[in-house]
Amino acid sequence: MTIPSVSIPILSFIVFTPLVGALLLLLIPRHQKEAARVFAATVSGFTLLLALWAFLAYDRAAGGYQFVERMSWLPELGIHYYVGVDGVSLPLVLLSALVLFTGVLVSWNIEDRPHELFAFMLLLASGITGVFVAQNLVLLFFFYEIAIFPKYFLIAIWGSTRKEYAAMKLVLYTLVGSIIALVGALALYFVSPVRTFDMDVLRELAARGAFAQTVEVFGQVVRFDYLWFLPVFLGFAVTAGLWPFHNWVPDGHSAAPTAGSMFLAGVVMKVGAYSALRVGIELLPGGAVYWLPVVVFLAVVAALYSAAISLVQEDLKYVIAFSSIGHMAFVTIGFAAMNVTGLTGAVLQMFSHGVMAAILFATVGMVYDQAHTRYLAHLGGFARAMPMATLGFILGGLVAMGMPGFSGFVAEFQVFAGIWAARDTAWWYPWVAILAAPSIALSAAYILRALQATFFGELDRWRYPHVGDVTALDKVAIVTLAVWFVLIGVFPRIMTDMIQTGVEPIVALLQGAMVASIR
Amino acid sequence: MELSWWAHLWSVLPEIVLVLAAALMMAVDAWLPEGRKRELGYWAIGGLAAALTVTAVQAAQLAGGIAVPYEAFGGSVRADLAAMLFRVIFLLAGILTVAISMDFRPLRQSGEYYILLLISVLGMGLMGAAVNLVMLYLALETVGIALYLLAGYLRDTPRSAEAGLKYFLFGVFSSTIMLYGLALIYGFTGEIAYARIAQALAGLPAPAVMAALLLILVGFGFKVSAVPFHFWTPDVYEGAPTPVTAFISVASKAAGFAVLIRAMIEAFPTAQANWVAIMAALAFVTMTVGNLLAIPQRNLKRLLAYSSIAQAGYILIGIAAASPLGVAASIFYLGIYTLMNIAAFAVAVIMTNVTGSEEIRDLAGLSRRSPGLALAMLAALLSLGGIPPLVGFFAKLLVFAAAIESGLLWLAIAGVLNAMVAFYYYIMVARAMYVDRSPEEEKPVWISRPARFTLWFTVAGVLLLTVLVYPLYLLAQMAAQAF
User: What is the CA B247 to chain-centroid distance, rounded?
Assistant: First the structure.
């Protein structure tokens, strides 16, 4: 197969525009805060346009990896600057550009060191996008680690309530996970018959069963993919907030500033799930077939447990934070279906939940900016003061509930359909669907409870004398995000077509491994 | 083969330039009036830069195959790419150290400070090139004496005097033990040249070789501050004038590794199985102890001292791998480490000038006070922690990859776990700069022009070398093949 390539390195532009922007931003004189904001908005807006352009220019009929760029970096060790996008990664590239742009807009009024704030946000976005486009394992880790330390500063400097504790917890959790996965990747490199970190070559090798060989560890002979799948998959799944490694999520999401929460729930968790798919499932398909039936029950627990906990939270941000654990669990459940429908649903869920989490945290942040509290008991009646934010929250809430006509329904329906369709391969599949389904009902309950407590009822004018509407920039952010719910809800094919082309090779890989394991 | 007089001189040309520069500086020192002593720094930089230029030309000739490696002065020194690359590290460290010394307040500007620095660089150059036991010991002592004096240079400050004395006592003690090991080797083999020792050792009983090896490693372990020979490090680092600390932490350590690598590979190839086990154990203990003891530190220089112990542990991983990749990874790591550690110490120098304190808590509010300085420190710390996009990431990746390739998976896992511990305390320093507040955060920070140069050079290095990682790796690889 010849790899199509374009003359403009569009993906490099998408990845490095924020990075270069972050460096230039720091050169703007300190007192010119407005200039820093405008510059950050320009850079992120430009990045979003580039991402949109790539999304539209992607040849859906051809599928596969497109906009490929490859340059030597450390060729003797098989490390290359190798980027490309397929139907799975491109929606996520778009997602991170969306969250970056809207995150900059809702952070406009932060007065404390906006230069550094936007620089860290841009750096974070650069790392995240880099993970989504990387086609070389070392490059993937390179960007994955870039996406870790800015989070510490975003939370510890601009966050609230136990911010330093939450920041350190989050960073250590994700760092431990990623480093365990990194050791797995290095092990993969050294058992591979071809010494390369290029993921396309490693996938080929995986398809031919190269990683199903046995290795000896501490005197035990085990299959390499059985041994390493769990460390690699779970190492990344820490960042995706999979139970029982989810503990950083509620603290981190709640302590972060608004834009930080949007990033964390919106894209950072997807970085974990995406890497788990790309490195864990795709490079170790034998291990995936063997272990996913176990892992899926962690996800079922996560879905039920987090939805139940959301229902009793008193802090509005904790409600949304726990809900994101539950929604990300559906991504893992979709992976476990191991068929096209389930995986398409999982990837669409990543995009849908990303936009939804971003809009929910953005509107919660808008409320918090004016109310200075997030306690449901103290809130109420904000709908009249800020109708646009209320609309944003309601739309996000409808997506979270899986309401037909919105993107969340399309995604979660496909996940369940995929799980159900797989019932012929193993007896436990229907049980996954049956056990996970109540979480949908619970999510409707906690969303309605939060909505009611925050936006409806009577506004306490004595407590909040100066509550006014949100700024025009906030409205732009809300619209930019909300458009996608409806668009995907009504025309799912603008996403699903593309995602399917990316998912089909993965499913073929898994089917091959399944056949091999039966034999 | 009979060498021409020019070939003899060529092998130590950088050292000759340094001797001339030191002699010239003595004259300049006498001639400069009292008020203009600061200019001595520029003379020192000039001398080091001249030597660096010579070395760079020689390295290019060796790398390009125009010159071939050979041994000169009756098999005392070898002119090969490894010797030249290590010289580049020492000279670069020397230049950057002089640049941060020039406006360091406690240091009265005087000729002998810079001359001592030049002499220690000279000795290091010979350490990197030494291929027999006598030359090795002479070079080691030249460096040692110059550095003992530099560490105790602030005679009036008790802490500095204590640092000088402590460094001296530990130094002589360990070098005496090492000398005993060298004597054993000579007694067993009757040889002083590495290559012949290697042949003669092949027929010797293993316990005898092992005993000599262990004694010699005491001396090397002291130089690179490997655990358990590290006890001097925190006190000396804390007490010595900060620019001297920077210099000891990079150049002296690199020189220690230069002799360690060369001696192990060239003189003890037959005992490889033994020293690989020792190096792996040393690497594990060194990085673990260094990192764990760094966590409770409140003084920036002590924290950097323990961090530099831990860094020595990572570098030892490459040597323990005992493969071309491992040795190249260690050399690569040393080059990168020079840049990032000097960057961190440069910030310490500037902050000591401004606040008169070396406590981490006095970095509070630095990101408001001087955003650029805080950013430079952040880059240095993250690079030391192995976080991309800084080049420290590749340094760690290479040593861990080398360990896994050589079947030392446990050491690689211990290494990555250590990297996480290290990340914690580096971030705690960054936290002081970025999160904590201070009543003095409105006062500007004055950074002298030479110190600014050091900061720009080192920070640009750790940022840009990420892109240029391949040429640098190739150089390290070629140097590793020289052994």
Answer: 7
pLDDT band at B479 (very low <50, low <70, confident <90, very high): very high
- On whether both B82 and B53 belong to a single domain, the answer is yes
**What CA–CA distance (Å, rounded) separates B473 from B331?**
9
For residue A358, the distance in angstroms to the closest alpha carbon of chain B comes to 25
* Same domain membership, residue B53 and residue B12: yes
Q: Do A157 and B434 touch (CB under 8 A)?
A: yes
Cα distance between residue B320 and residue B411, in whole Å: 9
**Residue B332 and residue B202 share a domain:** no
B257 and B280 in a single domain? The answer is no
Instruction: Kindly report, residue by residue over A192-234, the tens digit of the pLDDT.
Output: 888 889 999 999 888 888 888 887 777 788 888 888 899 999 9
Q: Which of B416, B424, B470 is closest, CB to CB, to A183?
A: B416
* pLDDT, average across residues A394-399: 90
Residue B412 pLDDT exceeds 70: yes
pLDDT(B254) > 90: yes
Contact: B427, A168; criterion CB under 8 Å: yes
All residues of chain A having their beta carbon less than 8 Å from the beta carbon of residue B470 are 72-75
Give yes or no: residues B260 and B279 share one domain.
Answer: no
| B23-38 per-position pLDDT tens digit | 999 999 999 888 888 8
Domain count along chain B = 2
The residues on A that touch B, with CB distances below 8 Å, are 19, 26, 30, 72-77, 113, 115-116, 138, 141-143, 145-146, 148-149, 152-153, 156-157, 164, 168, 171-172, 175-176, 179-180, 182-183, 186-187, 189-190
Regarding whether B191 and B60 lie in a shared domain, the answer is yes
Substitution target from B427, B437, B467, B473 for chain A, most A beta carbons within 10 A? B427
CB contact under 8 A, B420 and A179: yes
Taking only the tens place, the pLDDT of each residue in A372-387 is: 888 887 887 787 888 8
* Domain span including residue B207: 1-267
Whole-angstrom distance, CA of residue B219 vs CA of residue B260: 10
pLDDT in tens, A54-90: 999 988 888 889 898 998 898 888 899 999 999 999 9
Position of tokens 């936290």? B431
Q: Of B367, B368, B404, which has the smallest distance from its Cβ to A186's Cβ?
A: B404
Give me the mean pLDDT over the B239-263 stretch.
95
Is the CB of A19 less than 8 angstroms away from the CB of B389?
A: yes
Q: Report residue B110: phi and psi, to 5°.
A: -155, 155
Instruction: Give Cβ neighbours of residue B64 (< 8 Å, ≥ 6 apart).
Output: none
Which one of B215, B240, B267 terminates a domain?
A: B267
Q: Closest by alpha carbon to B42, among B460, B457, B453, B455?
A: B453
Instruction: Single out the residue in B252, B267, B282 at which a domain terminates.
Output: B267
**Domain identity same for B159 and B282:** no
The pLDDT of residue B1: 58
How close does chain A come to B393, measured CA to CA in Å? Answer: 8
Interface confidence (ipTM) of the complex = 0.89
How many Å lie between the alpha carbon of A192 and the closest alpha carbon of chain B?
A: 12
Q: Which H/E stretch holds residue B54?
A: helix B40-63
Q: Nearest CA of chain A to the CA of B233: how many Å?
A: 29
Question: What distance in Å separates residue A73's CA from the closest CA in chain B?
Answer: 6
- Cα–Cα distance, B405 to B403 (Å, whole number): 5
Report how far residue B434's alpha carbon sits from residue A117's, in angstroms, rounded to the nearest whole number.
Answer: 11
Which residues of chain B have a CB within 8 Å of the CB of A75?
470
Could you tell me if B442 and B335 lie in one domain? Answer: yes
Q: Residues with Cβ < 8 Å from A260, sequence gap 6 or more?
A: A151, A154, A155, A158, A159
